[in-house]
Amino acid sequence: MHNTINPDRLRRPVMPRSVSIALIFFVCAFSCRGAAAQSGGAAALQAGGIRSLGPWGEQRIGIWVTRYGTGVPFFNVDAVEFRPWAKGLFDARQQHDLEPHARCKASGAIRQFLTPYGVEILEIEALQRLYIFDIGGPHTYREVFMDGRSHPADPTPTNYGHNIGWWDGDTLVVDSVGYNEDFWFERMGLPHTESVQVTEYFTRTDPETLEYRFVMHDPIAYAAPVEGQLTMAWREGEELFEYVCQQSNYAHDLMVNPEELRSFGRTSDIVP
Question: What is the pLDDT of residue 6?
Fold first, then answer.
């Protein structure tokens, strides 16, 4: 299993970042069904697992939704080796719910999977790209380059960063750098800086289950890597739906989570 990036990965010609969702699905109409059909063959079982994150076998279209009641901790706060400034910021964030994701800000890597609505993961072999579509919150998508390129030497910091991926047996590995500091990586508010690097591992252990693990390196914020995991379940028959996120609707009285409003201010314990 990879934990570092091979510096010899070649950079190949790239399609402009402005490729539209319409083009993605146009290409997918001709390539994804064939790829999905092939994924059921022996080539998809190189390591005894399922090398596909889309519909498998007789499954129809679906999405992945995090299982919140499994008892598996997402990450162990007590084991995180914070730098003093990062610990102070983390503690301050426990006093409110003023998270950027709840204000429609795209939030990269781990945070994409921590919503009650799930995600759709789509690999398009013809484009050598993989897309992770948010359903709730910012309702946008992350693009993962699967063509063997390396990270750029000096990426422009963004909310989703620069993502490259590859299959390691039956595990999809996604490595990302180039993040800005305008979002939280998860709902509790683990701080990060622009030096952060996140490596994610997706292993589909059976048609209904996707195990996810991440390792976050940020030597400015932490004395050691931060690791965590979660489990996602396949929810067949569900698709992306329209989700209107109104950035100016701050709902400040509810977001600070005062005790006297908790009885009626939340319809769900899960922040969108």
Answer: 45
